[in-house]
Amino acid sequence: LALYFHIGEREEKCIIEDVPSDTLVIGNYKVQRWDTHKQEFLESAPGLGMFVTVTTPSADVLLSKLYGPQGTFSFTSYLSGEHIICLQSNSTRFVAFAGSKLRIHLDIRVGEHFFDESVVQAKDKVDEVNLRLEHLIEEIHHISKEQNYEREREEKFRKTSEETNSNILWWAIVQTLILVSIGIWQIKSLRDFFISKKLV
Fold this sequence. Notes:
This protein is an alpha+beta fold. The protein has a domain at 2-113: Jelly Rolls, CATH 2.60.120. The protein contains two helices and nine strands; from the N terminus they run βββββββββαα. The longest helix is centred in the last third of the chain and has 72 residues, at 125-196. The protein starts with a strand and ends with a helix.
């Protein structure tokens, strides 16, 4: 997931990331500040910090830390589900910038294990093959976790659909019984009325 968005200073912006359990999530961000004189976003925003908060599906705070104008944060999920990642700018030095418009570039990678090419180049061919195999095995484990998580979500969705269909069926049966009962009661009332008036 790579995106950018605009916020005001000290304004909070949250995104929701659906993450399987026991999965590494790495986020890279960069803050740019709007320059009113040049009418453009500057490449850096000195004096600005970024407060990052990560909340689990059970509303536990997994990460809460103040970073600089550019940085990397990471966390490992222990629950599967929607994790809320919130970023809020925080002026660390220059209060004069308060209220200015900021552009946040955010790149979030879920379950990635980085492969360090410099380490591979320093090793011989056998070690290189071993490192690449280990990296592939980690990727396979991550894909397997993703598939299991999607399977759990599909099963939960199917159960919800079946329960909803069952409720709809029972509601239709109850409605039919009520309508039949009202019809029988109306016929009986009309019959009794006609008999009392000696029309039948």
